[in-house]
Specification:
The complex is a heterotrimer of chains A (392), B (261) and C (413). Chain B is an alpha/beta fold and 261 residues long. Chain B has 6 helices and 15 strands. Chain B has a single domain (5-33, 69-257), classed as Putative cyclase (Glucose Oxidase, domain 1, 3-Layer(bba) Sandwich), CATH 3.50.30.50. Chain B starts with a helix and ends with a strand. Chain C has 413 residues and is of the alpha/beta class. In chain C, the strands form 3 sheets. A 7-stranded parallel sheet of chain C has the order 11-10-9-12-13-14-15, with helices on both faces. A 5-stranded mixed β-barrel of chain C has the order 4-5-6-8-7. A 3-stranded antiparallel sheet of chain C has the order 2-1-3, covered by helices on one side. In chain C, strand 1 (44-47) and strand 2 (54-55) form a beta hairpin. The chains are: A alpha/beta (392), B alpha/beta (261), C alpha/beta (413). Chains in contact: A-C, B-C. At the A-C interface, helix 4, helix 5, helix 6 and strand 5 of A face strand 4, strand 5 and strand 6 of C.
Chain lengths: 392, 261, 413
C-alpha cells in the first residue's frame, strides 16, 4: 500500500488511562449490568474520582438487553453529556477509543468511561447465536447451528486451500498464546498446550478443533479517556494514541473472506502514526480464531497476503520473543467475555506500555499495535479496526 | 267385551306374549339403497359423539345422528311415491295412528330364495300359501320372509354390473294384494320392498307404485321374520312424526301370543 | 457415494420413540420469499430491477444501488462449492443429535455466495446444483446437490430430512374406489413404499378395478369410510402408528353451482366427504403422525391433500364442489401449522379437470389419474408443499398471481 501522509486530525492531548479488568468467570448468574457496574466501580476507584465525574460513557455488551446505554445511565446513576452504545463485539475496544478520544478533544466530555462487559449464563451462548443478526437468522443459523465456529471453519478451510497454511501453523500461535497466559490468574485456560494436544483436540467444525476456539465466559474490561491535563491533575499515567483506523463491510465483492478492512486502511494507520511496522514492540491482534490472526498479520503490514503461515514459522510470539504477540494470552487462552473480548488486547497493550502488566512484561515497551475485528453478520467479520498506542 | 289392557301388559312382561324385534341396528355399516349417481342419494346413518364423560360434557354421553328417512329398518308412507302424492293423510305425521298397529301374514320364501336372488313373488305362490294357512285377512301386513337378513352385506345388497339382484314381488301380485286382499302394507327383509331388478318391471317398482298409490305402507330391512308364525303376529310399526315425512327409520316389533317355537 | 437405504427393521415396541425437534425456522419476512420458492420447488433469488444485481441473503435494499425493487425471480442454480466444514457440535438440539453435519459455502454462477447444507456426494471445489428446500421447521434452506444425479441420491440422510420420499415408508391411500385412488396405490407401490394401505368404504358395493387393486404388490385393503368418524378412528387405532404418509383420495365431484342447483343434499355430501372427511382423518391420524416425525428411516413424513385448483378460484360450473375444496384448502393450511412441530409436511396438490367420469364433458387439457399420482410421488420426493399438476392448474396459478379479479370473471365464462 502506497504510504501517503494522513490528513486526519491527530490525537494530541488525549490520554487513555486506568486499564481495568474484572476477573473472568466461566459462568455467572449475575447480569451484564453487574459486570459493567463492577468495571465502573474499579475505574472510579483507580482514578480517584467520583462517579459523578464521569461525564462521558461508552458501552459495549451482548447480554445487557433489554437495556442499551441509556438504561444504564439511570441504572448506574450517571449523568453523562456524551453517550455511545457500540454493539461492535471484537471491534468495540478501538472503536470506543476513537469515539471517546474525539469527544474529549472537542470538549464534548472530560472524562469518558469506556466499558465492555458481558455475563455468561448456561444458555447465553446458544441464545446469542440464534438471534445474532438478521442474516445469521435467515442464512446461517439454520445450517447446522454451529455458530461462529462453523462460519470461521469455512473461512479457515478456504484460507488453507488458497494459501497452503497448515493446522500446525495455527497451532503454533495458540501454543504461544497459552504460554503468555500462564501468568494470568483469571485465565480460563490454565495449562500449557502442546502441539500434540492441539492437533488431537476434539473437532468442532472441521478444520477447527477445540483449541482454535475461545471459551465464552463472563467478565468486563474498561478504561478511561480524558485530556492529558486532566490525567495529570489526577495523577494518572496512561498512553497516547498515535493513530487509529476503522472500517465495516470491507471488500464485499470478495467471495470468501481472506482479508479484513485493515488491508484498505493499513497505509493510513502507519502514516498517521508516522511509523513503520517494525517500530511497534508488541502486537495485540483480535484472536477469535487463529486464521483471523494470520489475516491481521498480513493486512496490518507485517507480511504479504498469503504469507502469514511462513511468518508464523519464522517468528516466536512469547513476550520475550521476536514478535511479542497477544501478550496476556489473548482470548484463546484467557477467554472471551463477550464484547469484553474486543477490549482485552487494548487494555493489555495499555498495561504493557504503562509498565504494569498482570503477566510477563515486554521489555521496554514503547509502542503497541492493537487490532480489533468482529461481528460475523453472515459469512464474514464485518468490522475491523486498529490503533497504534505509545507510552505517554 | 272389554279389553283388559293391564292383563295384556302383564302378559308381555311375563313372556306369555312374546315381543320379537324385527329391527336391524341403526349402524354406519348397514347397506342403503343405491341410486344412479346423478340422482339424490339416501343418506347413510352417521353418528357424531357430542360428549362422553369428558371435557365436552363431564357427566354425560350423547350423540348427534344423521340419517335418511329411508335408512336401515324403515317405514314408507304413501307420500313417498308419485302415485300416492295426492292422497289424504299420506305423510308419517298425518297417517291415522291406528294404522301403526296391525296383524301380519308372513310368507316364507326362504327355500325358494336360497340360491336365487332373482326370486319373484307371484300370485300362484301366494295362493299356495293361502291353501295352507287360509286367506290373507284384509288389513294385514304381508311380510316376505326370505332370510335375506342373515346374509353378509355384499350378498345382502346383491349389487352386480346391472344393479341389485334381490327377491321381490311381480307387478301382478302387488296389484292383487291391494285389489283382492286389501292388505295394510308390504314388508321385506331386503333394501326396498321391490324386486332388485324392479326398474325393468311395468310399472317400474310396482311394490311402491301400487301400494303407495292406494295409500298402503312399506316396511324394509326387517329381520327375525323366521321367528314369526305364518299368521297371528301383531306388528307395532310407528314411524317418527316427521313434518310431512315420507317415511322414517323405526323400531318394528312383533307381538306373538304363546310360548316360543 | 450415498449408502443406499436399507429397509428398516421392525420397531422395538418397548423403546421410547425419539421426539421430533425442529431447526430454527424464524426468518425475516423478506427471507420467506425463499420459503415461497421452496414450497413450490423453484430456485429464486432477489434480482434488482434497477441494476440487475442478484442478491443474497434476502434484504430490503440493493447493496449495489440501494433500490428497494428486489423481487424474487427464478435464476440459474449452478455454482461451485468453495469451502466445506463438518459441524461436530451444536448448541441447537435438532442439530446436536444429528452431527456430524456438513455445510459449505457455494459460489453461485449468478453471483452470491450461499451458505448451504451439503449432500453427501458433493465435493469441495466441484460444481454443484443449489436447491431451496423446506427443512423440518418449514422454512427454506439451501442444499447443494451434485451437478448430475448420483446413485441412491435421494437416500442421503441430509436430503431425506427435507423430503418425504415414499421409499420404505408405509402409506395410506384413503379411498381405493376411484381411478385416482387406484392409480395412487400403484404409484406408491412402484415408488418403493413398504406397505400401501388402501381404504375402502361400503365394501358391499362393487366397483371397477377392485381385482387389479387387490393384486398390486404390497397393497393391503382396509375398511375406511371418511364420512364415518368411528371408521376413521378405528383405522387410526389399528394402523396409525405404522402409517408414514396419508394420501387423501376421497373425492366427490359433482357439477352444479350455488344458486344453480336444486337442493342441498349433494352439497352436504361434498362437505361431509371432503371437508369433514379431512377433519376426521386429521383428528384420527394427526396426533400420531406428529408424534412419529423423527421416528427413524420410516418416520411419519406427510399428509397429502388432492385439491381442485378451483379451491383458489371458484369455477361456477362446479361451484359447490369448488367451495368445498376451498374449505379443504383452509383446513389443510391449519393442519400444516399443527403438524409442523412434528416436522410432518402437508402437501397440497392442485389440479384442474381430471380424465375421470365426473369431468367427462369438460374439454381437454385434463390430467389422468396416473399423471396425478406420478406428480404426487415427485412432489413428495422433492419435499415441496404446493404442487400444481397439469396445464389448467398451472394456467390458473399464473393468472391468480397477476390479476385474481380478471380470473374470477374468466372462470364465470
Amino acid at each position: 500500500m502506497m504510504a501517503q501522509a494522513s490528513i486526519r486530525k491527530s490525537y494530541d492531548g488525549v490520554i487513555a488511562c486506568a486499564p481495568v479488568t474484572v476477573p473472568y468467570r466461566r459462568y455467572s448468574t449475575n447480569s451484564a449490568h453487574w459486570w459493567i457496574g463492577r468495571a465502573l466501580h474499579h475505574l472510579v476507584k483507580r482514578a480517584g474520582i467520583k462517579p459523578a465525574d464521569i461525564d462521558g460513557f461508552c458501552v459495549s455488551s451482548f447480554t445487557v438487553g433489554p437495556d442499551t446505554a441509556v438504561g444504564l445511565t439511570q441504572h448506574f446513576g450517571l449523568t453523562p453529556r456524551w453517550l455511545d452504545h457500540i454493539p461492535f463485539g471484537g471491534a468495540s475496544g478501538v472503536v470506543a477509543l476513537r469515539r471517546a478520544a474525539r469527544a474529549v478533544q472537542a470538549g464534548d466530555a472530560d472524562i469518558v468511561a469506556c466499558v465492555a462487559g458481558d455475563t455468561n449464563h448456561v444458555d447465553s451462548f446458544r441464545k446469542t447465536l440464534s438471534t445474532f443478526s438478521r442474516f445469521a437468522q435467515d442464512a446461517v443459523y439454520p445450517y447446522g447451528s454451529g455458530g461462529a465456529n462453523a462460519s470461521f471453519a469455512l473461512i479457515t478451510k478456504n484460507y488453507m486451500n488458497r494459501y497452503g497454511a497448515k493446522r500446525e501453523d495455527f497451532g503454533k500461535l495458540c501454543i504461544a498464546q497459552r504460554d503468555n497466559a500462564l501468568a494470568i490468574p483469571y485465565a480460563m485456560m490454565r495449562k500449557k498446550l502442546t502441539l500434540d494436544e492441539y492437533m488431537n483436540a476434539r473437532p468442532i467444525a472441521d478444520p477447527i478443533h477445540l483449541f482454535d476456539c475461545v471459551m465464552p465466559c463472563a467478565g468486563a474490561e474498561a478504561f478511561l479517556v480524558c485530556r492529558e491535563d486532566t490525567a495529570k491533575s489526577l495523577g494518572l499515567s496512561g498512553v497516547r494514541i498515535l493513530s487509529t483506523v476503522e472500517r465495516h463491510n470491507a471488500f464485499p465483492a470478495d467471495p470468501m473472506q481472506v482479508r479484513g478492512g485493515w488491508a484498505l486502511d493499513v497505509g493510513e494507520l502507519w502514516a498517521m502514526a508516522g511509523l513503520k511496522s517494525n517500530a511497534v514492540d508488541l502486537v495485540e491482534t483480535y484472536d477469535d480464531y487463529p486464521v483471523i490472526v494470520m489475516m491481521q498479520l498480513e493486512d496490518l503490514g507485517f507480511c504479504k497476503k498469503g504469507e502469514a503461515a511462513e511468518f508464523v514459522r519464522t517468528h516466536t510470539f512469547a513476550n520475550d520473543g521476536t514478535f511479542p504477540h497477544n501478550t496476556s494470552g489473548g482470548q484463546l487462552s484467557v477467554g472471551q467475555a463477550g464484547a469484553a473480548g474486543g477490549f482485552l488486547g487494548l487494555v493489555e497493550a495499555m498495561r504493557q506500555l504503562m509498565g504494569e502488566p498482570i503477566g510477563k512484561p515486554v521489555a521496554d515497551a514503547k509502542a503497541a499495535l492493537v487490532s480489533g475485528f468482529g461481528m460475523i453478520n453472515y459469512d464474514r467479520g464485518l468490522s475491523s479496526c486498529a490503533a497504534i498506542l505509545a507510552r505517554a | 267385551m272389554a279389553i283388559d289392557l293391564l292383563s295384556f301388559a302383564k302378559a308381555v312382561s311375563s313372556g306369555e306374549v312374546r315381543v320379537i324385534d324385527l329391527t336391524q341396528t341403526l349402524a354406519q355399516e348397514f347397506p342403503t339403497i343405491v341410486l344412479p349417481p346423478e340422482l339424490g342419494q339416501c343418506a347413510p346413518f352417521r353418528i357424531e359423539e357430542v360428549s362422553r364423560y369428558d371435557e365436552r360434557g363431564p357427566a354425560w354421553y350423547w350423540n348427534n345422528i344423521s340419517v335418511g328417512e329411508h335408512t336401515g329398518t324403515h317405514f314408507d308412507a304413501p307420500i313417498h311415491w308419485i302415485s300416492g302424492k295426492d292422497l289424504p293423510n299420506n305423510a308419517v305425521d298425518t297417517i291415522d295412528v291406528r294404522k301403526f298397529i296391525a296383524p301380519a301374514c308372513v310368507l316364507d320364501c326362504s327355500t325358494a330364495c336360497a340360491n336365487n336372488p332373482d326370486f319373484a313373488l307371484t300370485i300362484p305362490f301366494v295362493e299356495e300359501w293361502e291353501a295352507c294357512h287360509g286367506k290373507i285377512e284384509p288389513g294385514s301386513w304381508v311380510l316376505l320372509r326370505t332370510d335375506w337378513s342373515k346374509k353378509t352385506y355384499p350378498d345382502y345388497a346383491g349389487l352386480r354390473d346391472d344393479g341389485a339382484h334381490t327377491p321381490g314381488p311381480e307387478p301382478a301380485v302387488v296389484k292383487w294384494f291391494v285389489e283382492e286382499r286389501d292388505v295394510h302394507g308390504f314388508g321385506t327383509e331386503t333394501i326396498g320392498t321391490d324386486f332388485g331388478q324392479g326398474h325393468h318391471f311395468n310399472p317400474p317398482y310396482p311394490a311402491h307404485f301400487y301400494m303407495h298409490g292406494k295409500g298402503r305402507f312399506g316396511l324394509q330391512c326387517l329381520t327375525n321374520l323366521d321367528l314369526l308364525p305364518p299368521k297371528g303376529a301383531v306388528i307395532l310399526a310407528a314411524p317418527l312424526k316427521i313434518k310431512q315425512g315420507s317415511g322414517s327409520p323405526l323400531r318394528v316389533l312383533a307381538l306373538v301370543a304363546g310360548a316360543g317355537k | 457415494m450415498t449408502e443406499p437405504l436399507v429397509r428398516p427393521k421392525r420397531k422395538n415396541p418397548l423403546r421410547r420413540t425419539r421426539l421430533p425437534l425442529s431447526p430454527q425456522g424464524v426468518r425475516s419476512r423478506t427471507a420467506h420469499g425463499l420459503t415461497a420458492a421452496a414450497a413450490e420447488g423453484r430456485f429464486a433469488l432477489q434480482v434488482c430491477l434497477d441494476c440487475n444485481a442478484v442478491v443474497y441473503p434476502p434484504r430490503d435494499a440493493c447493496p449495489s444501488c440501494l433500490s428497494a425493487r428486489l423481487p424474487f425471480r427464478d435464476v440459474d442454480n449452478g455454482g461451485v462449492l468453495t469451502a466445506e466444514t463438518t459441524v461436530q457440535t451444536s448448541t441447537d438440539p435438532y442439530f446436536r443429535e444429528r452431527t456430524p453435519w456438513r455445510v459449505g459455502a457455494v459460489k453461485l454462477d449468478v453471483g452470491p455466495v450461499v451458505v448451504a447444507h451439503l449432500h453427501g456426494d458433493v465435493v469441495e471445489g466441484a460444481r454443484v446444483r443449489l436447491e431451496f428446500k423446506l427443512d423440518r421447521s418449514g422454512s427454506a434452506v439451501a442444499i447443494a446437490l451434485p451437478e448430475k444425479d448420483t446413485p441412491n441420491m435421494a437416500d442421503d440422510p441430509h436430503l431425506r430430512e427435507m423430503t418425504c420420499d415414499p421409499k420404505f415408508r408405509r402409506v395410506l391411500i384413503t379411498d381405493g374406489r376411484t381411478a385416482v385412488g387406484q392409480a395412487m396405490a400403484k404409484a406408491f407401490s412402484d415408488a418403493g413404499a413398504s406397505i400401501v394401505f388402501v381404504g375402502l368404504a361400503d365394501a358391499w358395493k362393487p366397483f371397477p378395478g377392485y381385482e387389479e387393486l387387490r393384486r398390486i404388490d404390497r397393497v393391503e385393503i382396509v375398511p375406511l369410510d371418511v364420512t364415518d368418524t368411528e371408521s376413521v378412528t378405528e383405522q387410526a387405532e389399528q394402523n396409525g402408528a405404522r402409517i408414514d404418509i396419508v394420501v387423501n383420495t376421497a373425492e366427490h365431484v359433482r357439477p352444479g353451482g350455488v344458486i344453480d342447483r336444486h337442493g342441498l343434499t349433494v352439497a352436504r355430501e361434498e362437505i361431509d366427504i371432503r371437508y369433514m372427511g379431512l377433519l376426521r382423518l386429521a383428528q384420527a391420524f394427526g396426533p400420531v403422525l406428529r408424534f412419529r416425525g423423527a421416528d427413524g428411516v420410516n418416520s411419519a413424513a406427510a399428509f397429502v391433500n388432492l385439491i381442485s385448483v378451483h379451491a383458489l378460484m371458484n369455477w361456477p360450473q362446479f361451484g359447490s364442489y369448488a367451495a368445498a375444496e376451498a374449505a379443504v384448502l383452509s383446513a389443510a393450511q391449519c393442519m400444516r401449522a399443527e403438524l409442523r412441530p412434528g416436522g410432518v409436511k402437508v402437501l397440497n396438490v392442485f389440479f384442474g379437470p381430471l380424465e375421470t367420469e365426473w369431468f367427462q364433458t369438460v374439454p381437454p387439457p385434463k390430467v389422468t389419474p396416473a399423471a396425478l399420482a406420478s406428480a404426487v410421488i415427485r412432489a413428495l420426493k422433492q419435499g415441496v408443499e404446493d404442487a400444481f399438476v397439469g396445464d389448467v392448474a398451472e394456467d390458473i396459478r399464473q393468472r391468480l398471481a397477476v390479476n385474481p379479479k380478471a380470473l374470477e370473471r374468466e372462470m364465470a365464462g
